[in-house]
Every structure is written in structure tokens, then in C-alpha cells.
Write a structure and sequence with these properties.
The chain is an alpha+beta fold. Helices cover about 20% and strands about 30% of the residues. It contains three helices and nine strands. The strands form three sheets. It has a five-stranded antiparallel sheet. Strand 7 and strand 8 form a beta hairpin. The mean pLDDT is about 85.
């Protein structure tokens, strides 16, 4: 046998072995991960229906959430808007309220006819208008707020809002006296 052919045979065997090792490594790196099934606005708590399990091979440098952690992510809030078909990462989620510096969260219990839309979404901008007491001269107070979340229950709504810390006490007193209106405004 010629030495050149023998060298070529050894090279081909070595390349075949490397190819097989790569194939085995790629198959081992395949795993089940969580992906986004539908649009999830920023600030919205994730539900099981928002997630789908996908198989991903390789993915060096990615940090997707394993499908086995579904229970740990359901209920967390989206820190950013989540797009259908994208892999979910823990960096996209938070347990913390979506508050900026100097803001506090308040919950307003409202009747359905006091809510300016069927569903207020996280990030919606609203104005809280304080109305005067009966028999008092018209004096209107106004407070800017951002919707964090909303829950509906049999004709009642609880709207969770972020507003300036300095405005919280006045808003709570107006809401307690049923002297507050919620107005939806265009987002900023």
C-alpha cells in the first residue's frame, strides 16, 4: 500500500470520529426550554397559557429557562414586552412591582362602570380626577398614574397603579369617599 493512501485513510477515519463526536455532543445539548406563546405586555404576570415548551439544540451563549422551571416563572411579571416565538430568559422576568424611583403602588377598587376600558393594560397612562364633595364648590384635583395591573371579578375591578409617593394619601382618601374618576389617556 502506498504511504499517501494510508495517510489519507487515517485522516478520513479521524475526521469521521470527530464528526461522530460532534453529532453526539449536539444531541446531548438538545433540551426542553420555555418560549413565549403569545404577546405579553411589560408588567403583566405570566400565566401557563403564555408559555410553550420547545426543543432547542446547542445554543451556546444563550440562557433560556428550562421547561422544568415552568412553575417558578408562572406568576412573575414581564420586565419587558415578550414576543411570541422567543425563548424566555430569567432576565426578562421580575418579582418586583413595576415602580420608578419616587413612586408607590396603590390599588383602587372600582365598579366596572368606573373603569374607562374593558381592560386596562400594564403601562397604560391614566389620570385620576378627584371630584368635590356634594354641596361643595367645584374644585378638581388631578393625579397622573400608570397602570401596573388589573383584576376583574363579577362587575368589580381592582386597578393597581403606580403614582407619585406624594399623591398616594390624597388618592386613597378620594377613593375611600368614592370621589375619584379614572380617565385613560394616550401613552407617553
Amino acid at each position: 500500500m502506498r504511504p499517501g493512501l494510508l495517510g489519507l485513510a487515517v485522516l478520513l477515519i479521524a475526521l469521521g470520529g470527530l464528526g461522530a463526536a460532534f453529532a453526539v455532543t449536539s444531541v446531548k445539548a438538545t433540551g426542553s426550554y420555555l418560549a413565549v406563546a403569545r404577546q405579553v405586555p411589560q408588567g403583566t404576570a405570566l400565566t401557563a397559557d403564555d408559555l410553550v415548551t420547545v426543543q432547542v439544540a446547542g445554543g451556546a451563549g444563550l440562557a433560556p429557562v428550562p421547561a422544568s422551571q415552568r412553575a417558578q416563572v408562572v406568576g412573575k411579571r414581564a420586565a419587558v414586552s415578550l414576543v411570541p416565538g422567543s425563548l424566555l430568559t430569567m432576565a426578562q422576568l421580575t418579582d418586583k412591582p413595576m415602580l420608578a424611583a419616587g413612586q408607590q403602588q396603590v390599588a383602587l377598587g372600582l365598579r366596572a362602570n368606573q373603569v374607562p376600558a374593558r381592560r386596562l393594560l400594564p403601562g397604560d397612562k391614566v389620570i385620576l380626577v378627584g371630584t368635590p364633595e356634594k354641596g361643595e364648590p367645584p374644585a378638581v384635583t388631578r393625579y397622573d398614574a400608570t397602570v401596573i395591573d388589573m383584576a376583574l371579578d363579577r362587575g368589580n375591578a381592582t386597578v393597581y397603579l403606580a403614582l407619585r409617593a406624594a399623591d398616594v394619601a390624597a388618592v386613597v382618601l378620594l377613593a375611600d369617599a368614592d370621589r375619584i374618576a379614572v380617565v385613560l389617556t394616550p401613552g407617553a
